[in-house]
Write a structure and sequence with these properties.
about 20% strand; 20 strands; 25 helices; OB fold (Dihydrolipoamide Acetyltransferase, E2P); D-amino Acid Aminotransferase, Chain A, domain 1; Helix Hairpins; about 675 residues; about 35% helix; alpha+beta; binds 2-(butylsulfanyl)adenosine; 5-stranded antiparallel sheet; 5 domains
């Protein structure tokens, strides 16, 4: 390829990819499969590598991240980023409307009905961002900061797929557009699920998650956070229209993601209707909103009203009420999690809130307790906001009895009495006694036997506690020394369940290496990371002797994971456990088939698995498909090659399969295919 051709091809691929990003992330109407999309992106990335002279900083290849920002540069906003004044009820809003009309000299009904045109918008709960475009290209993305200056987060913002890197249509040559970066609820939930699995501290809510993500130094990590961005405010000298709503419609044609739910309301009564509607409907949205923003639509009117020092007079935020009650704090207890993290819990006098009875609320960590200055015996305000667990938002000091002592945070583990530690920059204290502290040991065993790990389903949580309490199992390795005679005397243990338990443990010895690697519970090594590591190192022995540099070469492994792996294997107790597990016969290497990279028998075939199977588990079948070069998918489409069906396949799936004429095969047929 000549440089000229390459240049041309890079341009063409870039615009094609950006169009697909737009279709998918803004319009929500993809027209290409993920697979084909990835191929286009790979082509672009490889051309850019070969012809770096044609690389542009706004190439869609930047969306996957990679750029590191060590220190975010502080930049001054051209237009200050003000906030909005808040309102909480109908009265506040009627006051606002009165002030607006007075400000504009519309006091009596004259030639028109005196009603103001307001645009009502959802108040997205994330972090605000200002994007600057010059000649249709994104040149800078800045956080709000203190309103006067913020952080330059351009590299990270480029990973947000709904933020256009190039604009379409007829846009002003230079303008600023502001909006809210947020994390969709489903993304937040699944990230937290992953974190729970690998023992990371959970993120409190999507807002914190979004703002934490935008401040990460490694943009490749930001890209994984799947952030999104709604835009709601354009600023510039040469905007095409004289009203907010028209400019927002225009911005939509330039490629921005603008909410479909904004509405032009005539007069404050329409505004109140809009608010009432969303007060209930907001729970159906796939992202969090914490209120409604009301803006005067007409720019002349906006200009006449102007600003106070803090906020525009032409706009106001209405904040939804989080339900709130006050109740007595009876006691503060402390929970120890699987990874040793300590969480203080408020035990409350039971009180009704949001349809349930609340007895407990999280107090998160020592700093929060100190900030709230909550003390046992206080009356506290409890609120159910975006989080599932209710939180304490304040103390009713008027009800505090004299001489109530301030809360002293515990210094020792409530379970094993080891002195607690707290790492710099970490919010939570933790118990360092990882190998003896009961909830940590039990938690680790529970993880070890869980479905995606060793899958010993005959060993339930209660039995684990019994085994631990009886002193029979102190580490995951002890499971393999268990004898039937030892477990039979346990409460509620019958002959049959004892047999099942022993058989289950025995069967786990054939669980594949990557799952063993996930099961042993190295901090930060989740299911996917374990798979990638296993594929690369091929055996535990190699992993144990890998240097940090070697580990960092593995896809998915960054600094934190590399250190965690090294720490794990330098711990003498862990080494002892690994020795015992090896001796017991666990798979510490990829199988021969895996070593050879499996087969290509299912190359280009996509499978959907449905129903329950007799011979292997669904996860096993998934693995077999991947091992033999096939792909798994969760939904049936024209692209599905086969449905691997067990018993009780869902009727909807069956209907869909029939309508698309996708062949349905049973497990025997499948096993023959890969034989
Ligand atoms: S307009 C001068 N519209 O709420 C007007 N803000 O304190 C600037 N927000 O910092 C803001 N949704 O982060 C506007 N539809 C919306 C919004 C919105 C969320 C946030 C924004 C701002 C805060 C108001």
């Amino acid at each position: 390829m000549t440089p000229n051709e390459a240049n041309h091809k890079i341009d063409q691929l870039s615009s094609e990819i950006e169009q697909h990003n737009y279709n998918y992330y803004v319009l929500d109407k993809p027209t290409i499969s993920d697979f084909d999309f990835d191929k286009l992106l790979e082509q672009l990335i490889s051309l850019e590598k070969k012809f770096p002279e044609f690389f542009s900083p706004n190439s869609p290849s930047q969306r996957v991240g990679g750029g590191i920002t060590k220190n975010f540069k502080s930049v001054k906003h051209q237009y200050a980023m003000l906030s909005l004044s808040n309102s909480y009820n109908q009265e506040d809003l009627l006051d606002f409307d009165r002030r607006v009309r007075e400000g504009l000299g519309i006091t009596s009904v004259g030639q028109f009905d005196g009603a103001i045109d307001y645009v009502c918008e959802l108040k997205f709960d994330g972090l605000s961002i200002s994007l600057i475009y010059e000649d249709g290209k994104l040149t800078q993305a800045i956080t709000r900061g203190d309103g006067v200056q913020g952080d330059d987060v351009t590299t990270n913002a480029k990973t947000i797929k709904s933020i256009p890197l190039h604009l379409k249509g007829k846009y002003p040559d230079k303008f600023e557009i502001r909006g809210e970066v947020y994390m969709p609820r489903p993304v937040f939930d699944s990230l937290n699920k992953e974190r729970e699995e690998i023992g990371d501290a959970l993120m409190a809510n999507p807002r914190n998650a979004a703002s934490g993500s935008m401040k990460m130094q490694d943009s490749a990590q930001v890209a994984k956070r799947k952030l999104d961005c709604f835009l709601y405010y354009v600023l510039g000298e040469k905007l095409p229209h004289q009203s907010h709503i028209e400019n927002m419609h225009a911005a939509k044609t330039w490629g921005f993601k603008i909410s479909e739910d904004a509405k032009l309301c005539h007069g404050i009564d329409d505004v109140l209707d809009f608010i009432n509607y969303w007060d209930k409907k907001r729970f159906d949205l796939p992202y969090d909103i914490d209120g409604i923003v009301i803006k005067v639509n007409d720019y002349n009117q906006q200009q006449n009203l102007g600003f106070t020092a803090k906020s525009p007079r032409w706009a106001i935020a209405y904040k939804f009420k989080a339900e709130q009650v006050s109740t007595e704090l009876l006691e503060i207890t402390y929970q120890v999690g699987r990874t040793g993290a300590i969480t203080p819990v408020a035990n409350l006098k039971p009180v009704a809130l949001g349809g349930t009875t609340v007895k407990r609320a999280s107090l998160h960590n020592a700093d929060i307790i100190e900030k709230l200055d909550v003390r046992v015996g206080d009356y506290v305000f409890v609120e159910k906001g975006g989080e599932i667990i209710p939180k304490i938002i304040g103390v009713d000091l008027s009800k505090r009895k004299a001489h109530t002592p301030p809360t002293k945070y515990i210094t020792h583990c409530p379970e094993c009495h080891t002195e607690l530690k707290r790492d710099e920059g970490e919010a939570n204290h933790f118990c360092p006694n990882e190998n003896e502290c009961p909830p940590q040991v039990i938690g680790r065993i529970e993880h070890f036997v869980s479905r995606k790990a060793m899958n010993i389903d005959s060993l339930g949580g209660e039995t684990i506690v019994q085994l631990f309490n009886a002193g029979l199992v102190k580490t995951i390795a002890d499971l393999y020394d268990l004898k039937k005679e030892q477990i039979l005397p346990l409460e509620r243990m019958a002959e049959k369940s004892a047999n099942n338990l022993i058989d289950g443990i025995e069967a786990s010895k054939s669980v594949t290496f990557e799952r063993v690697l996930y099961a042993i519970g190295i901090r930060h090594v989740g299911e996917t990371t374990a798979k990638k590591i296993a594929k690369k190192v091929k055996s535990l022995n190699v992993l144990m002797h890998s240097t940090k540099e070697e580990l960092l070469e593995i896809d998915e492994v960054g600094e934190i994971i590399a250190i965690s792996i090294a720490d794990f294997f330098s711990n003498e107790k862990n080494k002892e456990i690994i020795r015992k597990l090896k001796h017991a016969g666990l798979q510490f290497e990829l199988s021969e088939e895996q070593q050879q990279g499996g087969s290509e028998k299912l190359k280009d075939l996509t499978f959907v698995i449905s129903g329950v199977f007799a011979k292997h588990s669904r996860d096993d079948y998934k693995e077999m498909i991947e091992l033999n070069g096939g792909k798994n998918s969760s939904s049936i489409s024209k692209k599905t090659s086969y449905i691997l069906a067990g018993d009780n396949m869902g009727p909807e799936k069956l209907k869909k399969a029939e309508s698309l004429a996708v062949p349905i095969i049973d497990e025997d047929t499948f096993l023959k295919m890969i034989k």
